[in-house]
Write a structure and sequence with these properties.
It is a single chain. By secondary structure, the chain is an alpha/beta fold. The chain is built from seven helices and eleven strands.
Length: 217
């Protein structure tokens, strides 16, 4: 996939570092120092510029982009960059929102996925209490999608199976950690005992997905 990330701060760098091995990543950062740091740290195209300008997005390859994530610390920049990307043909746009009150506004304007770090902490505590077999990492606001973490154990139904052998019934395996190495899996990645697995799952199939990855109590 070709992915554009607007913002090379903590969130943007975190995303880029984990996606660059298996995807084509472009980063747009207005701040000169942050752009230079990103360029040194990543094997990715880094553009110092404004993500709300068509010219900058074109330099980042917006015409061939599968997704764009606006993750700067400014809600307005994230919104405008996503809306502009949409108008230029990007199908999936993700916006980070610092003010929870803006969530409904962003969704009403057509943003596909709205992430609010401020709300995720409360959601995580609730999920940890109600679902002790899985560790919730985040709740993607407005999309009825959650990100869950499991550790593969001896009695897990998916232990020893290749990712391609596990039907994606309402969920998607997005990352697998083997030892100290975290990778985006492919169809031939085998899930072994001790592996940590992260999945994106629709809220209405959390129970069925949990049965596959967790050991029944």
């Amino acid at each position: 996939m070709n992915i554009i990330i607007v913002g090379a701060g903590r969130v943007g760098m975190y995303m880029a570092e984990r996606l660059e091995k298996d995807h084509e990543i472009s980063i747009i950062e207005k701040d000169k120092d942050l752009a230079q740091e990103a360029s040194r740290a990543l094997d990715a195209l880094v553009i110092q510029g404004d993500g709300t300008e068509t010219k900058t997005l074109e330099e980042a390859g917006v015409k061939n982009a599968d997704a764009l994530a606006g993750v700067t610390g400014q809600d307005e920049i994230n919104l405008l960059s996503c809306l502009l990307a949409k108008s230029l043909g990007v199908k999936n746009v993700f916006a980070r929102v610092g003010k929870p009150d803006y969530i409904e506004v962003f969704k009403s304007l057509g943003i596909d996925h709205v992430v609010s770090p401020e709300l995720s902490a409360a959601d995580r505590l609730f999920k940890l209490i109600t679902r002790p077999v899985a560790t919730d990492l985040a709740l993607i606001e407005g999309s009825d999608v959650e990100i869950l973490e499991f550790t593969i154990q001896e009695g897990s139904m998916v232990r020893g199976k290749k990712v391609g052998e596990i039907p994606p019934d309402g969920f998607l395996i997005i990352s697998v950690k083997k030892g100290d190495e975290v990778n985006i899996p492919n169809a031939n990645t085998v899930l072994e005992e001790g592996d940590k697995v992260w999945i994106v799952v629709k809220s209405n199939v959390v129970k069925s997905a949990t049965k596959l990855f967790a050991v029944p109590e």
